[in-house]
Design a protein that fits this description.
This protein is an alpha/beta fold. Helix content is 39%, strand content 18%. The structure holds one RNA strand.
RNA sequence: GGGCCUAUAGCUCAGUUGGUUAGAGCGCACCCCUGAUAAGGGUGAGGUGAUUGGUUCGACUCCAAUUAGGCCCA
């Protein structure tokens, strides 16, 4: 007989662990990052899966300026979750991150810097490119660190950069392909042009913002009417007839070549009395007559034969179609303006008569081509009128508006002038209003070789998630114009074409192209600006067409969307480890127009196939109210801040908890909730670890059935359900289901039930008893499984737990070789059918309803101060008959199940019992448990006091201690 | 202005092909425990399903419009 201590606490097996409750993530994470780094975990994952089925997620390159924002974090974490999951599933899934390095924003920053230093005009293009390169490199490093800090695994040492020599050589190679196949052409076309940045802008580079512009109504005097149509204008030429056009860009009138009417609308001839016995006739679309006349200050003359001064009278109405071909006089230039027809004319505002300047508008251009009009644009690249514009030469177009209005007034061509605020295109960088201006540009034809049609067909072969992504990109590709690929800037990949100075033809010889590509590979794109044109040509080269021997290099650069668009070729296309096409692209939904599309166009153009099998899009990060983040609203959440205060893990949890298909909200409250959820998961792991402190890490699976521990079998079954749910969630990219399943498992199944019930067994049983060991084995299964299930999301914590398990197991000198060095080297859990027991779980659903009712009965007694701890209670159940079998099967387990000291079942309805509402006929009576409280296990028992050596403990405890 | 999308408790999410009183967890309130303790347990109160119409015997679920928000484009 041992000497019994009064301090029974020492005889208990209470949990022990050095796994801290407080995560201190912002400090612990860097240690874990260091661990991954030092142990080369990412590389070892790749080694381990080498030769297995590949699963390639191709990274869309973020732009290398600024620090990463929350959207970047969202995107990379989502990618990381997929890559880690696939890797643990045994797929070969290396992740090669990339950066988009060229383009205007960086050049802009460099320009600003050079301007500050006062040397902007002194640096040549090579020097400027050097500055740009340095700038990009700086931010690649910064962003790389930011991404790495999020716990994202990847080839951070060998990312792809669109400015690397190898990459630019591929850009040229792919571009050359388009040239050789005849896609590339050059033409004058109005493009968005920023006069401040002196460049053409892609559609993606244009932002719409409110701008105040003049709004003017201009008269175009009818000069001649086509033969046979004279009858339309009875009064002509006794009274002057005017087509009235409305515009908010007076300066484009300088390039006016036509007036456009809608063929199907009717137009009124309106006779107005302008005083002193003079009349004029205005032509205006019928639907806007009232509005316009009010604007102009004329009143209807009603039934009078002739309008008085300030009055108007409709004298005829004609369909737009019939007015085609009438010639007007330009209001202030000696030129004619032809009346033409177009469907794009609307009657939303204006006069239903659109002034057409084919060199300064998209619709104008299209209709101009149709009517064979000149694509006329007398404006230079800084937005100043050229000498073609006569007296306006040298004036900045927006400033010239006032002067033009003045001229119109003097020429009696202006009916009305006012200010007008409307949505107007602005440059995305300098935020200044842009103009439409016809310039020589390079294009990739979207119709050539049926490119559009082939792209549309490919779109239907891709798996778009969410499904509406298909409709979105389909509509965009269906309607998009040819791809303008030229930019008049310095920081980019040059359009490597060489022009013959005498015949203006471009050299398209394989030999020349290959030479250029080779020199790009050796140096980088700078070589185009370093070498003279002759150095790219064989010595003594003569133009094949005209025999000329003087050549010049094209100095435009390529649209950056072309750079990133060919990443499939430059990255996954050449890396032997990777597969083409990629299994998945994953970006924000804005990339339907951007990268998804440029990638599709280039891939279909050069390889005839989409570069991706699946395209997953996520929404945008918005604030707690669902509003977009902006500096002006002050609702921006910076990932660096969250990492600092809460840890990257919380950010990762946030990404996984939200359904990313929609907009993703982030707010202080959301982060607080997630931090709490994190703590719960962490504590559940900690408790599991604590109770494994003395586990021997032997396999007790055989004993699970042997000792028929139903609650452990239930737990194992629940665990299989969890594996199934989580796996299917990962497979379907429903990461928020991963979070919810894991979290609910921790809270509902584990913390509030299984672990709570288990405490008695874990703490009070003999350490080495079979019951306790089996339970510990189950706890170990649960912990190990949960850790692996959460690893793709909660990477830091999973690793921390894993290392803790490993350490413990090692100290037991058992199974050491079975526990991998990192959780990411372990395999993803698989459902083990042997533990899957649906029938058992169903039975337990019934038991849980009973338990919930017992709890209600206990709670009532607690409120009455009849009891505190539920172990003080004995419950008497009066169940409906259908529960009899179940209750008798589980008879011995019931006290533990309810965490009370005794359970009695009666067939007599007890007095003063709690009557269940959930289960009709079920009654629960709560009484004080008989006997006394055992000072060791805290259960109440009549056996307490029976043992002289230890009068304060119960029989069960006595046996444990004395045996 | 056009295209695509979203709208369920304070928060994050479930709700099978339209069919009883719309579920879960968190948070909140109250209580218990003090052997997971800057933890743990219990009970409870929270929803005119954005609004309005329509289809239907019946709508959170289908349709339309409106409102709010997001992305893309003009």
């Amino acid at each position: 007989m041992s000497i019994l201590s009064k301090d029974y606490k020492n005889t208990l097996n209470l949990p022990q662990t050095d796994f801290p409750m407080k995560a201190n993530l912002s400090q612990r994470e860097p240690e874990i990052l260091k661990f991954w780094e030092e142990r080369k975990i990412y590389d070892r994952i790749q080694e381990k899966n080498q030769g297995k089925t590949p699963y390639i997620l191709h990274d869309g390159p973020p732009y290398a300026n600024e620090r990463i924002h929350i959207g970047h974090a969202l995107n990379k974490i989502l990618k990381d979750i997929i890559v880690k999951y696939k890797s643990m599933k045994g797929f070969y899934s290396p992740f090669v991150p990339g950066w988009d390095c060229h383009g205007l924003p960086i050049e802009h920053q460099v320009d600003k810097k050079l301007e500050l230093e006062g040397i902007k005009d002194k640096v040549d293009i090579l020097e400027k490119r050097k500055h740009c390169k340095d700038y990009a490199e700086t931010f690649v490093d910064i962003q790389k660190h930011d991404f790495w800090r999020l716990g994202v695994f990847g080839d951070w040492k060998i990312p792809y950069l669109t400015m690397s020599s190898r990459y630019v050589a591929y850009i040229v190679r792919e571009f050359t392909h388009f040239v050789k196949e005849g896609y590339v052409y050059r033409k004058r076309k109005p493009v968005h042009w920023c006069p401040s940045c002196v460049t053409a802008l892609a559609e993606a580079e244009v932002e719409y913002a409110d701008k105040e512009s003049p709004s003017i109504y201009v008269k175009f005097r009818v000069e001649s009417i086509p033969e046979g149509k004279e009858i339309l204008f009875d009064e002509f030429p006794r009274i002057e007839h005017y087509f009235v056009a409305w515009t908010t860009t007076p300066w484009t009138l300088v390039a006016n070549l036509a007036l456009c009417l809608h063929p199907a609308y009717s137009y009124h001839l309106v006779k107005v009395n302008i005083g002193q016995g003079r009349y004029e006739i205005y032509i205006i679309v019928g639907k806007l007559l009232d509005v316009c006349m009010k604007e102009f200050g004329f009143k209807s003359c009603r039934d009078k034969d002739v309008p008085d001064v300030g009055e108007y009278q409709v004298i005829a109405t004609w369909g737009g179609e019939i007015l085609e071909g009438i010639m007007c006089k330009h209001p202030f230039i000696d030129r004619k303006s032809k009346v033409i027809l177009g469907d794009f004319v609307t009657v939303g505002e204006g006069t239903g008569i659109v002034h057409i300047a084919p060199g300064h508008g998209e619709d104008d251009y299209e209709i101009g081509l149709k009517y064979g009009l000149d694509i006329y644009a007398p404006v230079d690249d800084r937005g100043r009128f050229t000498k073609e514009a006569g007296e306006l030469e040298g004036q900045f177009v927006f400033k010239a508006n006032a002067k033009i209005i003045e001229i119109l007034k003097n020429k009696n061509s202006l009916i009305k002038e006012e200010r007008f605020i409307h949505s107007y295109p602005h440059c995305w960088r300098c935020k200044k209003p842009v103009i439409f201006r016809a310039t020589e540009q390079w294009f990739i034809s979207i119709e050539h070789n049926g490119l559009r049609k082939r792209c549309l067909e490919e779109i239907d072969r891709v798996n778009w998630i969410p499904r509406w992504g298909r409709d979105r990109i389909y509509g965009m590709v269906l309607n998009r114009p040819d791809w303008c690929i030229s930019r008049q800037r310095a920081w980019g990949v040059p359009i490597t074409l060489i022009k013959c100075d005498s015949c203006s033809g471009f050299i398209k010889e394989e030999e020349v192209f290959e030479g250029i590509i080779k020199s790009f590979e050796e140096k980088d794109a700078d070589i185009w600006f370093i070498k003279s044109v002759d150095e790219f040509l064989p010595s003594g080269y003569k133009c094949k067409k005209c025999g000329g021997n003087s050549f010049s290099k094209e100095m435009d650069i390529l649209d950056v969307w072309f750079d990133s668009g060919i990443s499939h070729a430059a990255v996954i296309g050449i890396d032997k480890r990777l597969n083409w096409p990629a299994d998945i692209y994953l970006e924000g939904s804005d990339q339907h127009r951007g990268w998804f599309q440029s990638s599709l166009l280039t891939a279909v153009g050069t390889k005839g196939k989409a570069p991706y099998k699946t395209v997953l899009t996520h929404g945008f990060v918005v604030d707690g109210q669902g509003k977009k983040m902006s500096k002006s609203l002050g609702n921006v959440v910076a990932p660096q801040e969250v990492i600092k205060s809460d840890g990257a893990e919380i950010l990762r949890l946030w990404v996984s908890a939200k359904d990313y298909r929609d907009d993703i909200r982030i707010s202080k409250e959301i982060l607080e909730r997630l931090t709490e959820a994190y703590r719960k998961i962490r504590n559940t792991c900690r408790f599991l670890l604590g109770n494994l402190y003395d586990f021997d890490y032997r396999d007790y699976s055989y004993a699970l059935l042997e000792i028929d521990s139903k609650i452990d079998r239930w737990a194992m079954s629940r665990l299989q359900t969890l594996i199934e749910t989580v796996t299917s969630a990962y497979e379907n990219f429903n990461f928020h289901e991963v979070f919810h399943a894991l979290y609910n498992f921790c809270v509902v199944d584990m913390s509030s039930f299984y672990l709570d019930v288990l405490k008695d067994r874990l703490y009070t049983f003999k350490p080495g008893s079979m019951e306790r060991r089996v339970t510990q084995w189950v706890l170990y299964q649960i912990l190990s499984t949960m850790t692996r299930l959460m690893a793709p999301v909660l990477s830091f914590t999973a690793e921390e737990v894993w290392q803790n398990i490993k350490q413990r197991a090692k100290s037991k000198e058992q199974r050491e070789e079975d526990i991998e060095d990192s959780v990411f080297l372990a395999s993803f859990p698989e459902v083990d059918e042997k533990y899957y027991d649906q029938e058992l779980e169903k039975k337990w659903d019934d038991l849980f309803v009973l338990r919930s009712e017992v709890n209600k009965a206990l709670e009532i007694k607690r409120a009455e101060k009849f009891l505190g701890n539920s172990l003080e209670a004995k419950v008497i159940l009066y169940p409906p008959e259908r529960y009899n079998a179940l209750l008798s099967e589980y008879r011995d387990f019931l006290p533990a199940f309810f965490i009370v000291s005794a359970v009695e079942i009666t067939d007599q309805s007890p007095d003063a019992s709690y009557k269940s509402r959930e289960i009709e006929g079920f009654e629960v009576k709560v009484e004080k448990a008989s006997g006394a409280k055992c000072q060791r296990c805290w259960n109440w028992s009549e056996s307490v006091g029976r043992f002289k050596e230890a009068p304060e403990i119960c029989e069960r405890c006595y046996e444990v201690i004395s045996g």
